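Reference record:
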Amino acid sequence: MSDDREYPNRPWVGIGVVLFRGDEVLLVQRGKPPRVGSWSLPGGAQHLGETTQAAARRELLEETGLQAGPLHLADVIDAVTFDARGKPRYHYTIIDYCAHWHAGQATPGDDVAAVAWAGPQQLAAYRLTKAALDVIALSRVRLAEAARQVAT
């Protein structure tokens, strides 16, 4: 199996975390390629032998110094980019979890240049992708549903 991310022979599994502290969501500014300098959600590649939830918790801690409460599946996104010949140039399957902040102080680590907590009215300033904005909105719904289930 090839470890190449460009023109891979299999999809790469990426794990993301949509972490909330009250109404604010945690964002990270990417410090390494791809998309250096852009704002996104914390996350990264799943390691061999690692569960998706363990990967989510590891990536969150490595990138931000934070710990999450219970994780809830937010969404699974297929990100496939084709070249001019129609061949998959990049292929990621991204599993996003959502949770509430549990512990830690937000500090940039690993491959992150900066971290920020952003309220709903501040999100536009970070120029997030449509996919990131969609999963943030969906995560708000998923966490509200989980809270209702616990309450009943």
In short: The longest strand covers residues 88-103. The chain has a mean pLDDT of 94. The chain has two helices and eight strands. The longest helix spans residues 130-151.
